[in-house]
Structures are given as C-alpha cells and as structure tokens.
C-alpha cells in the first residue's frame, strides 16, 4: 500500500502543477480582460464626448498594466487633467528623480512636472525648471513655449515678449500669435492711458510678427480715432477727413483678409463718421459708400441692417426693403428678417396691422437676444461677449462672430 502511495506522488505533483498553472493563466487572462475592457470603455467614452468617464477608465487601465516610463508619464498627465495635481506631481517627481531612466526621459518628466506646478499655481517652481530646460537643445522649443505660457499666466507680458524675442527661431505659429496678442494687450493699455506713441510701437511690432492677424489693424484704427478725439479742438477739418479716410482704408484691408469681422468694423466705422455720442446715423455719402463696400466684402448681417437703415432714413424705404429681401434670399438670417419687418410695419396704414408685425418682430428679437454672438473656431466655445483669448481652450485670436441663421 505504501509503495502504491509512493508511485502516486509524481502524478499528484503533476496534477497540482497543472491546476496551479491553469489557475495562474485564468487569473492572468481575467486581469488582461479587465485591462482591455477598461481601455475599450475609455475609448468609447472618449468617442461619446464623456471626457471625465474616459479619463477614469484610462487611469484604471494604466494602473493595472505593467508600468513603463511612457505609461507612467501618461498616467501623471491624466491625473493633472482630472485635477489631481498632487498625484501628478508625486508621480512625475519620482520619474524625474529615477536614476535608472535615460537622460532624455528625465528631461520629459521635468517638463511634465513644470506643467503640474503651473496647474497648481506654483509658478516660481515651474519657472525654475523651465529655465534649466531652455539651454538643452532638444528641449528648448518645448521649454520656451511653456515659459511663454507661464508669463502669460502671470500677466507679465513684457517677460513673455522678451523670452519669445530671444528664441523666436524655435517658436511655432501659435506661439507667435500669442506674442502678437501680448503686444496688442500692451498697446490697449497704452491707449487707455493716452500713450499713443507707445501703443503705435507695440502695434507695429505685433503686425510684423503676424501680418495676417486682424487685431493689430483694428487697434490701429482705434488709435487713429482716439488721437483725433484727443486733438479735436486743434486739428483742422481737412485733417479729420484725412484720418477718416485712413481708418476706412484700414477697415477695408481687414475685411478683405477676414470676412467674419463685420460687427467689429461697423463699430469703428460709426466712430469714424460720428465721433460724438449720437444715436442718429451719420448723413454722409462717404459713410454710405463705406457701408456698401463693407457689406459686399463681408456679407455681415449687422452691416447690411445698418445700410438698410441709412437708405430708409435718407433715401428710399423701398430700396432698403429690396436690399434686405435680396440678402435674405441669398443667405437667410433672422436679424435681416427682423429689420425687414421693422421697415414693413412703418408702411401699414392700419394700426392693428402695424402692431401685429411689431409683436412678431419683438418675439424674433427676443430669440436673437437668447443666442450667443461669438464662437471660437478652435473649440466651438460660444459667448455673447467678445474675447480675444478663448476662455475655454485659451487660444488667442480664434473668437469670431457666428455666421449662421441666428448669427451675423
């Protein structure tokens, strides 16, 4: 009997080994399945624009996977995006201090750590890291771009401009647009303070950096108008006309470069022809000509409505109605329709008819007031106010008037 048990020992050992191996395989397969499911769920949430859920699933996937430098770096980035900056700092610090990683990996971890500090508001610590990274050729471009953003976060535009000027050869187009807008911010501050010469210098530099940007030209037109207003009792009427022509020429250049700027240009055009605060439209053939050219170049609903009001007030109401009707047929727009209804109500002989039209117009105007006027062409953020920097994606010079049936 004892010999029989002895003979069965190898069989039992083999069976135990087989069952243990199968159990390990099952556990491993189960873990791998869970990892894959988390990854696939993350992708699914991402596709369905459920960002928070997607980040949670990707974090779960990376936590369960075998950690590599790349996955650890990505995990830290996800922590930062989810607002868990302390965990991101801890993870990126351990990667940056790991002596076993390659030097370039250490540098990447340092850059991510600087981003963590910027998110946490520890700008002095982020600045120290980035200044150490700038002399490293392979990290210079990333470090300079982050330093520019850091100084922007501090609202220290002079420092941002200085670092951008020193390393302009490695800056991307988006970084150049940032620095162009920093010059515009300084110019706007100088305009408010009445320092026209400083404002002009900043605007000239901004235009040289990004010639396609419309903001420097808009501010240049505003500068001319402010100068004229400041010297109203000194300059002659001929000089005023000369300034007005210069402003109109600037606005025409802007509209040729960017069609979606009608409301901006209309506001400046009004100021050029009617500098005094007055609700009445300027009765000037040159104003009508400028409006006509602006409407043709931009197709702006705001400009077309202004032109129709000019025609109705100083020339022919039927011409104004025809202008709006043709524009509505070409591009349906409720602002144009509201203006057309306003003109039609003035022609009604029966008070009840006029009142009915005006009630309908008031409903349309209320609908217009509910909709946002501007949208970001980068992220789609919408607002009823104009921002030169999108509050959502933080990109500069991307907000434009909406071109839609309820927009401009």
Search tags:
three-stranded antiparallel sheet; mainly alpha; single chain; 18 helices; 408 residues; 3 strands; elongated
Characterization of this structure:
The structure is a single chain. Mean pLDDT is 80; it is low at 28-33 and 35-48. This protein has 408 residues and is mainly α. It has 18 helices and 3 strands. It has a 3-stranded antiparallel β-sheet, with no helix packed on it. Strand 1 (374-376) and strand 2 form a beta hairpin. It has a domain at 264-370. The N and C termini lie far apart (99 Å).
Secondary structure: elements and pairs:
Elements: H1 2-47, H2 51-64, H3 69-81, H4 85-96, H5 103-120, H6 123-133, H7 140-153, H8 157-166, H9 173-192, H10 196-209, H11 215-230, H12 237-257, H13 262-273, H14 285-298, H15 301-314, H16 317-330, H17 334-345, H18 351-370, E1 374-376, E2 382-383, E3 399-401
Antiparallel strand pairs: 1-2, 1-3
